[in-house]
Amino acid sequence: MISAENSTRQAGSPVVVTGASQRFGRNTVLEAIDLAVAPGEVVALLGPSGCGKTTLLRLLAGLSRPTTGSIHIGDQLVADASSGAFVPPERRSIGMVFQDYALWPHMTVAQNVGFPLEMQNIGRAERDTRIAGALEMVGLGHVADRQPGTLSGGQQQRVALARAIVSRPRLVLFDEPLSNLDRELRESLVVDIAALLRKLGMTAVYVTHDHGEAFAIADRVAILHSGNILQIDAPEQLVGRPTSPQVVDFLKLGLVLPAEVNNGELVIGGGAHRLSPPAGLVNGSRSGDLFLPRSALMASGVNNGARNGNAISGTVVHSMFRGDGYAVQMRFDQNIAIEMFSATRLGDGTVHDLDISWDRAFWYPHDTSHTERTHNA
Ligand SMILES: Nc1ncnc2c1ncn2[C@@H]1O[C@H](COP(=O)(O)OP(=O)(O)OP(=O)(O)O)[C@@H](O)[C@H]1O
């Protein structure tokens, strides 16, 4: 159990990234990223493999230089592509926690945790007090004299966390820190890390590809896709008001159906489905993506062949028992499927109508003259 009850609250620094891009040869991995992290704020970078999360973290750490743009940590300009200014990692006052713990096996836990303080030439007595304090905070005061190799994975990651915070850095960076741990341990440790960061008021950037982890730890989550930040918002806002179909798709929030608008009707899949949206939802555009969150869809029974503009029919791929009901995979088109919850098993291959609550639907117009997404609430 991590405890921060006796620590003094300290504020981390703000971080401002302006127009930062990263190119490797002809490959642009990050495109003109703007990101502002407030003092004491925890921001998660969430996105699929290869979207540029670690690359952005490495820029913040000073492990690589941006091709364009600049980065401030607090008042310090730590990287600026146009002037060539660059502050190396050891002079940025940052703590880092990696996926593989990166502890020194030949040192004791206390020596590992005290290493950043030694680098800062902090005297022995002060060092010992701070090491003991940091180990206490991560609930590992009793293993100070052990070697990391004799500890469990979860304990080793707590040692790495103690080492990252012991020198009271301005910013703590996490790169998929829980990926090597089993699910139960991940869930408990993420809650503990979040509590510790909040107690200490530390600014943190946390890279993960796990939605649950990002939502549990972050004040705001940035969704990265192909080197761009698609949306950065509080978890509730991301789920409740996604600003693009890509965000919906990545977070698996429901059904995204590309549609043409014809005489007020939404024509989907070349006419396979025809829906009658309420006035105002599609707002005069000719085509777009209709987003129906799971909460906007309710199974209303086996389709009887009749056309209903307020329901969409899908074919059950399979129903899987999940203890409190069934996870049902439904297919609407060759490439469009979602997983839904049903209290009863729905027969494989049967066609069901899903009633649409239009007040929960979103519309993302394709037409450039209608770039705002609309929501019918
Ligand atoms: N030093 C490098 N030279 C060339 N390409 C690189 C270099 N570092 C990263 N890349 C490329 O940049 C892209 C983004 O990599 P990055 O590690 O930032 O992704 P990520 O989102 O962290 O992915 P993952 O979740 O798999 O770690 C990848 O296509 C990767 O191959």
From TrEMBL:
Coiled coil start-end: none
Residues in ABC transporter domain copies: 15-251
Keyword Cell membrane: yes
MF term (GO), any: ATP binding
Keyword set, alphabetical order: ATP-binding, Cell membrane, Ion transport, Iron, Iron transport, Membrane, Nucleotide-binding, Transport
Pfam families linked: ABC_tran (PF00005)
Iron among keywords: yes
Taxonomic superkingdom: Bacteria
Protein name per the record: Fe3+/spermidine/putrescine ABC transporter ATP-binding protein
